[in-house]
Amino acid sequence: MDGPARALALCVEPDEDCLLIGAGHWPRSVDRRTPGLPPWPQGQFGTVALRLPKARDEFEMLAQAGAGALTPGGTLYLFGGKDEGIASAGRALAGTFERVETILTKFHARVLAARSPKAGLKSGLAAWRRTVTFSQGGTAFSHVTYPGVFASGRLDAGTEFLLDVLPAVGGTVLDFACGSGPIAQVLGRRHPEAAFTLADIDAIALAAARENVAGAPAHQIAKLADLPPAAFDAIVSNPPIHTGIAQNFAVLRDLLAAAPDHLARGGEIFLVAQRTVPVAKLAGALTARRLAENMSFIVWSLTR
Question: Is 285 exposed, middle or buried (0-12, 13-18, 19+ CB in 10 A)?
């Protein structure tokens, strides 16, 4: 356990009347980013613990989800590290609860206890659904999203560059680490004959992606190797390469290692990564070539 989890363990002894949001090491847990766990609280609990999310809007949503899962008189415990912003989280939590207090500061972390949820909270995921509009290649797209998904309601620079230079794709196409599905949504408009499959670790992002790419199979997986057996004519991806602010190539490494088992004969992987990411060195059995590059990103083509 890290510091925030150790601090929480000093405050709460979990039992069947406790629910943990944002991790999976309690008897009852929900986590949008853990395959196999439900992404949203079901039922009522005397104690709910919430790991402080990174995004402000995601924090507000999950705090209200936790408040809605409390029995009358129950307590929500918010825990997080100092480097995660827990010191200022009490003010934001006060928007959801009448009473908020810090009960422990230890292990470079803090635990807050919140009681008496305010009235009129949004307790269901559907209440947080919103629609934004983004433009790509001169075409406007209406895009469904949720808090913690599709940051700032626009394409990030890497995805924008990938879509600008990507050649035509057809046949069966996997959008890996798809988020809310903007890549498949754009490519589906360009190539309506293509059949898309979506894969991401975030269940709430996939809920949006299912609407943005209607009819596409969607899989919540952490690794490409966890996908049911299938061979694709193309795999497209803007894979995450950061854990917090530190670079972490685990997702990319797993993608490239498993890709040969998921490519059809003549199939091709197209991915975008920052210039500092050693894609060619991680390619393994794949042959990598630079398809396009700018000052910040390289779009790679990889084949068996």
Answer: exposed
Residue 151: its pLDDT value, please? 76
Chain length of the chain = 304
| Residue indicated by tokens 């798809």 | 178
Q: Which residues of the chain have pLDDT under 50?
A: none
Looking at residue 244, what is its pLDDT? 62
Helix (H, G, I), strand (E, B), or coil: what is residue 290? strand
Q: What is the pTM (predicted TM-score) of this model?
A: 0.94
Relative orientation angle of helices 182-190 and 157-165, to the nearest 10 degrees? 20
Per the CB < 8 A criterion, the answer to whether 39 and 118 are in contact is: no
3-class secondary structure, 14: coil
Interstrand relation of 195-200 and 172-176 (parallel, antiparallel or unpaired) = parallel
Report the alpha-carbon distance of residue 212 to residue 182 in Å, rounded. 7
